[in-house]
Amino acid sequence: MPVKILFADDHALVRQGLRRIVEARPDDFVVVAEAGSGAEAIEMAGKFLPDVAVLDVGMKGLNGLEALSQIKKQHPKMAVLMLSMHSDERYFLRAIREGASGYVLKDCVEDDLLGAISTVAEGGQFFSPDVKQWLDRIAAGGDDPTLTPDDRFETLTSRERHIYQLLAEGNANKEIAALLNLSLHTVETHRARIMEKLRLHSAAELVLSAVRRGIVT
Question: Is the dihedral of CA 109, 47, 67, 202 positive or negative?
């Protein structure tokens, strides 16, 4: 039976490229759903129950790491494979902590995607060479500060992380309230808590902090 796949990326051309790769082997793989955002990925995962959800890390609105966290909470046995153009240890570590079965860099997709999907669908783990090299160094006892990050971002709730990203992308409080079906007061309260937890004092500092974390570009 073919492996059922969900692709989530906020660029339609990227999704088309990923679909093209797997459709070259229709006996082994079938794309059951596509999503253009993290929130849609969560919805599609629940609706179609794919064997493997392939999520882009850098989606707008709700990024792939937040979508990963929620998907694994709702569907613990679902394999999730992360795709990213960023070879940054912070992303690897967060993805592993949230339960990702693999992490593939986009410049390795043509070579690695099919093998990665097959491996995680069977319960294994798959990491692109650069990611695996970092993991091997850590496993060998290499000193890496990212293993014990002193980052206040970890104190934010899932809702606060979502609102943090939306604020960093330039959305006003009223726009966020409409997007998330929340009251303006609730969004303002979340914003105040975010600023307090991250020790930020202005919108500019909030955006800069999100850029430094790779949440927005």
Answer: positive
Helix (H) or strand (E) holding 80: strand 79-84
**For tokens 């969560």, what's the residue?**
42
Domain 3-139: homologous superfamily in CATH: Response regulator (3.40.50.2300)
Q: Which of these CATH numbers, 3.30.70.380, 3.40.50.300, 1.10.510.10, 1.10.10.10, describes 152-212?
A: 1.10.10.10
Q: Residue ranges of the alpha helices (H) in the chain?
A: 12-23, 38-48, 64-74, 89-97, 109-121, 129-139, 158-168, 173-180, 184-198, 203-212
Q: Express as a percent the part of the chain with pLDDT over 90.
A: 60
Query: CA 20, 25, 31, 37: dihedral to nearest 10 degrees?
Result: -40
Please check whether residue 33 is in contact with residue 48, taking contact to mean a CB–CB distance below 8 angstroms: yes
Query: What pLDDT digit, counting tens, does each position of 120-144 carry?
Result: 999 999 998 878 877 777 666 654 4
CATH 3.40.50.2300 domain extents, the chain: 3-139
Round the average pLDDT of the chain to a whole number and report it.
88
Render pLDDT for 183-217 as a digit per residue (tens, 0 to 9).
999 999 999 999 999 989 888 889 888 887 778 76
The structure's pTM equals 0.74
- The CB-based long-range contact list for 73-78 (8 Å cut-off, 24+ gap) reads 74/42, 74/45, 74/46, 75/45, 75/46, 75/49, 78/45, 78/49, 78/50, 78/51, 78/52, 78/53
